[in-house]
Amino acid sequence: MEVEQVQTKEQAQQKENKPLLMAGPCSVETREGLLITAEQLKDSGIEYFRAGIWKPRTRPGQFEGVGAKGLKWLNEVKEKYGFKICTEVANFKHVYDALRNNIDMIWIGARTSSNPFAVQEIAESLSGVDIPVWVKNPINPDLGLWIGAIERFKKLGIKNVGAIHRGFSVYQKDKFRNPPKWQIPLGLKKEIPDMPIIVDPSHITGDNKLVSEISQMAFDLAFDGLMVEVHYDPKIAWSDAKQQITPTEFIDMVGNLKFPKSIDIEKNSIDDLSTLRSEIDLLDNEILGLFQSRMEMVKKIGKIKKEKNLTIFQNDRWKEILDRSIALAKSRGLSERFAEQVFKAIHQESIEHQTRIIRD
Ligand code: PEP
Ligand code: MN
């Protein structure tokens, strides 16, 4: 794939839909490490070099970023390699530090996008400043909340707003750390067709082996580019070690990705048959993922039944599941017959899985 540096979606389209690429480590760790990653990315074709300075961590006591001193190191990267530099901001103090230190773009992280007060505060602190702002989706799968966060910036006069799709958190992890639920970013594309939307395959997958699969999916669905976490030695990274890829892997991946020129969902109208069909395919894939998670649970229960010497089939429990599912299906406009057939098939499959465990 040929890569060209672009700034806005309009320019991207003029230049035959070349993708917008952003890459860099999850976090700034040391000045030396940052410069090594940047040096190895110098011929990668990226427009933006990304790195987190303030890291929103799930539990206290984890590495929470090097803070404002890292902005100076990012500026060294900018001077030496000519990349634009960007970082995540989560409050107005971060905004002031970023602006004072010539950051070219700021992004709003997924935890912050979920909080309208925080987004509003950041948007107000940018008043009168013309800096591109990219808004990650909120961690919960709520298209309205994502659109609301984007609107807060637009309303306060920020012209250059983009969106970054990074998947949605779930309690039970499946193949992906943050499953992509593609119908949500496709919905965003439909609601705000002029806005560029790029995909962050690193936080979606949580797994360096899956990054290229999701990146290709992003291009197949006509998203405008990628933000990828890249570290010169991922295994020693201070945050998100499992999902980062090396600069060489990034360059190879980009070279192998296909960026289809003709697909343009918003021009051909999102309602056309092929788009709807691809949404159906995505939903079917999600349904299968849920079946897979259900069977994992069933196997755990099978092990307990084996230990405690219980029967696999328990009539009361089966009746309860069937009645509950039929009632729930009806409340969702699905027929009783359909619910019964689906749940009988699921039950049969579950019994087969547990029988294998008990006979093992
Ligand atoms: C990040 O990009 O490093 C980050 C913290 O991402 P997210 O807000 O998507 O979790
Ligand atoms: Mn990260």
Short overview:
With about 350 residues, this protein is of the alpha/beta class. It has helices at about 10-15, 30-40, 70-80, 90-100, 110-115, 115-125, 145-155, 185-190, 200-205, 210-220, 245-255, 265-270, 275-310, 315-330, 335-360; strands at about 20-25, 50, 85-90, 105-110, 135, 160-165, 195-200, 225-230.
What name is given to the CATH topology of the largest domain?
TIM Barrel
Largest sheet: 8 strands, parallel, barrel
How many helix segments?
15
Name of the level-1 CATH class of the largest domain = Alpha Beta
CATH architecture of the largest domain: Alpha-Beta Barrel
Give the neighbour order of strands across the main sheet. 1-2-3-4-5-6-7-8
β-strand amount: 5-15%
Instruction: Name the CATH superfamily classification of the largest domain.
Output: Aldolase class I
Q: What's the mean pLDDT score?
A: 90
Question: How many domains?
Answer: 2
Give the cofactors and ligands. Answer: phosphoenolpyruvate, manganese (II) ion
Q: Please tally the β strands and state the result.
A: 8
| Global shape | elongated
Summing up helix and strand content along with how strands pair, one would put the structural category as alpha/beta
Q: What is the terminal separation in angstroms?
A: 50 Å
Q: H/E series, N to C?
A: HEHEHEHEHHEHEHEHHEHHHHH
Low-confidence stretches: 3-7
Structure description:
There is one protein chain. Helix 2 runs parallel beside helix 3 and helix 6 (116-125) runs parallel beside helix 7 (143-155). By secondary structure, the chain is α/β, with parallel strands linked by helices. An eight-stranded parallel barrel has the order 1-2-3-4-5-6-7-8, surrounded by five helices. The termini are far apart. Helix 3 links the parallel strand 2 (48-50) and strand 3 (84-89). It has two domains: 2-265, Aldolase class I (TIM Barrel, Alpha-Beta Barrel); 267-359, Chorismate mutase (Chorismate Mutase Domain, subunit A, Up-down Bundle). The longest helix is centred in the last third of the chain and has 36 residues, at 273-308. The protein is built from 15 helices and eight strands. It has helices at 9-14, 31-40, 69-81, 92-100, 110-113, 116-125, 143-155, 183-191, 201-205, 211-220, 247-256, 265-268, 273-308, 315-331, 336-359, and strands spanning 20-24, 48-50, 84-89, 105-108, 133-136, 161-165, 197-199, 225-229. It is elongated, with a radius of gyration of 23 Å. The site of phosphoenolpyruvate (PEP) has 9 residues, from loops.
